[in-house]
Amino acid sequence: MHFQWYPGHMTKAKRMMQENIKLIDLVIELVDARLPVSSRNPDIDELGKNKARLILLNKADLAEEKWNDAWAEYFKKKGYSVVKVNSKRGGGIKSIQGVIQEACKEKIERDRKRGILNRPVRAMVVGIPNVGKSTFINALAGKACAKTGNKPGVTKGKQWIRLNKNVELLDTPGILWPKFEDQTVGLRLAFIGSIKDEILNTEELGGELIRFLVQSYPGVLQEKYDVSESQDIYACLEEIAKNRHCLVRGSELDMEKAARLLLDDFRNGRIGRITLEFPQDYEETDGE
Ligand code: G4P
Is 132 annotated as a binding residue? Predict the structure, then answer.
C-alpha cells in the first residue's frame, strides 16, 4: 500500500506550539487508546521536556479495557501520569483535576519554596488531529467556564480557560501530526481514520482491517456480519457485501461500499471494543 503525505501547514502549527509550550507547566497529551503509540508524535518528548507530563488514553470506550489498563501501566512505568478517558461521555474527566495537581507537585513545591503561593498550574492540551482535543477541553471545562475569547474585545494574546483556582488551560490545543516510517503504523492510523480515506484505497484498507481482526479478534466478524473467517480476506469482504446488500446496478457486489461500511462500523465501535496495538510490541524495542 502506498501512502501520500501532505505537510501543508504543519510547520506553522509546530512553531506555534513551540511558542505556547514556553508558557505552560503541564503538557496534557491525548493519544488514541486503540493505538497509543502510533497516535503520538515523537517530537512531543523533545518539545515537552522539563514539563510535567500527563497522557490521556482518550476514546478508551472504543478500546479493550484490559489493554487500556496495560497501556496505562506502560506509560506510568516511563514516568508519565496517565488517565483513561472517554471525552465524549465524560468518563474519567472527574479525576483529572486531582491528577493534574499530583503531576505538578514538584512545580507547586518549587513555587512554595520561592514564596509563590497559589499560582495556578498552566496546562496545554496537545495531540494529533481528530484524537479528541476539542471534545476533551469542552468536557473538562464544562459549560460553566466561559472562554475569555468569547468576550467582545478580548481576542488578542493567549486565551486561558480558568478551570478553578488551581488550574488554567490554554484554550487552543497544540496539533501535532502523527509520524510513521513503517507501513504498519500508517495502516493503523488509516483504520481509525486519521489518514484521509481519499488518499488510500478503501477496499484495500477494509481488506487489511479484516486481516487484522481475523488474526487478533477471531470471531468478531463472524458474529457481526455472519461471515466465514476461514477464507481469504477478499472473500470475506465479498461476504460482507452480500450479507449487507452492498450492490451496484442492483446486482453486482459493491466491494468499496462494503469496505466503507466495515471501516465505519469499526470506527464507531459497532464491532466492539478493539485495540490495534499492544504494549508488548513496544516493550522489546524500547531503550534501543
Ligand atoms: P480534535 O479536536 O483532536 O481534532 O478532535 P475532536 O474533539 O474534534 O474529536 C474528533 C472526533 O472524536 C469527534 O467525532 C468526537 O466526538 C470523537 N471523540 C472525542 N473523544 C471521544 C471519546 O472519548 N470517545 C469516542 N467514542 N469518541 C470521541 P466526530 O465523528 O467528528 O463527531 P461526532 O460523532 O461527535 O458528531
Answer: yes
Rounded Cα distance, 184 and 169, in Å: 35
pLDDT of 199: 64
Atom of ligand 1 nearest to the CA of 268: 26
> CA angle, 229 as apex, 225 and 234 as ends, to 5°?
85
Q: Supply the CATH classification number for the domain 6-169.
A: 3.40.50.300
Which DSSP helix (H) or strand (E) runs through 122?
A: strand 121-127
Which of 18, 47, 5, 60 has the alpha carbon at shortest distance from 185?
Answer: 5
How far, in Å, from the CA of 234 to the mean position of ligand 1?
A: 30
pLDDT in tens, 245-264: 999 988 899 999 999 999 99
Sorted by where each begins, the domain ranges of the chain are 6-169, 200-280
Alpha carbon of 90 to those of 59, 67, 208, 232: distances in Å?
10, 20, 32, 40
Tell me if 66 is assigned to a ligand binding site: no
Residue with cell 481576542: 155
How many Å apart are CA 262 and CA 239, to the nearest integer? Answer: 12
Beta carbons of 225 and 265 less than 8 angstroms apart: no
**82 marked as part of a ligand binding site:** no
Give me the mean pLDDT over the 198-224 stretch.
93
> What pTM was computed for the model?
0.91
Q: pLDDT at position 55, please?
A: 98
Give residue ranges with CB within 6 A of ligand 1: 58-59, 61-62, 86-88, 127, 129-135
Domain 200-280: give its CATH architecture: Orthogonal Bundle (1.10)
* pLDDT class of 65 with cuts at 50, 70, 90: very high
Contact 79, 51 (CB under 8 A): no
Q: What is the position in ligand 1's atom list of the atom closest to the CA of 175?
A: 3
